[in-house]
Amino acid sequence: MFRRILIANRGEIAMRLIRCMKEMGIESVLAYSAEDADSLPVQMATESVCIGPAAASASYLNQAALVEAAKAASCDAVHPGYGFLSENADFAALVRENGMAFIGPDPETIRLMGDKEKARELMKKNGIPTVPGSDGLVDTADEAVRVADSLGYPVLVKASAGGGGRGMRRASCRDEVMAAYQDARAEAQAAFGDSSVYLEKEIVRPHHIEFQILADRYGGIVQLGERDCSMQRRRQKMIEEAPAGCLTPRLRAKMAKAAITAAKASGYVSAGTVEFVVDQQGNFYFIEMNTRIQVEHCVTEMETGIDLVREQIRIAAGMKLSVRQTDIHPAGHTIEVRINAEDPQQAFAPSPGTISFAHFPGGGGVRIESAVYSGSRVSPFYDSMIAKLIVHAPGRQEAIHKMRAALEELTIEGVRTNINYLYLMMFQRDYLLGQFDTSFIEENTEKILKWEKACRKKAGLTG
After folding, report:
1. Looking at residue 27, what is its pLDDT?
2. Domain for residue 118, yes or no?
3. Does residue 462 have a pLDDT over 70?
């Protein structure tokens, strides 16, 4: 087992990793930017090393600085968390070239599955349904128009190296294709250093369903059930839950089998997520594989009782999976919401600043993942997510009631947050009935914002 692991990340995921390492008796070395000098992870890690200034490009994305910090601290492994360099094949290779383990899949697998077009082709060869799309990359705007015409509208122009909704544009008619093509290429180049794109037929009003998998180097592969991530705003997940009410037992079994097949086909090792969309007729299609731990991994942990980060570390250390498929029995219902420092009433603009007071809810089946505390700062340099609130209960309605109670208790002052927005979402009739898809939040946001504004006015709150 590893003795010391460098954490190449920040915020709540850094705290999640530190806690797991403490439980495993592993020393943690946190690489942090000067902006995060007073953060909770810096205070809680065994050792902390400043690797650069606030800008992510000079700190959390500085591969050479991270590797040198790990070597100087005598680390034998590096955990990238999620975001930043977690799906960067070059970084994974650099870590290994310097004699340390990268806690994640092999560089070759990251590179293969990170290339969305190559991943699609691999899935097709292995009998996994994929969304109808272009035959390879689309090199010109004129070609994009021809392909879109053949697929039928609406279409999505998607970055081959993309993820998280970046490098993706929608075109609902012929006149919109060229602009979508140019915009997607520009964003893809800026975000990933790769402007290549392909086209897909847009599946209208789908469910976004992902399956969690774990795989070791000895042929052991398990799937730990699904998460419904359909509650999205601008293609960014806001609410995740399990199990997915839209799946029949038969469809769940077929998708689980496809997830295992995808892992085997790609030679996958570590924790990973196979993502699908499910259309209104119950057909499912592979969209991508995330070669890292997910933000919403806590949902699966609450459902199964299996520590995914612990398994990640064990696998990277050359150990076999500690569980078999017959050991995995998801139970109850889990809901996770992402708490962001943003102002819903101002187009969800980020709200950096100092948190003057923070109080987190507790009780059975309630879990908080966060790195904020009273007096901590929310930086304008990084993602606005400051916490995740997860609840687990025997059934979905009980979980919703528990989430309402937890959100009522959750208090963060000093910065604007989306807490009230999420709380009101828990009262939406169609959400309560499980009648939602990826369009739900966009279609209901205006109503919820008016409701929130009225509630604030009634309570005498201004600003």
Report:
1. 98
2. no
3. no
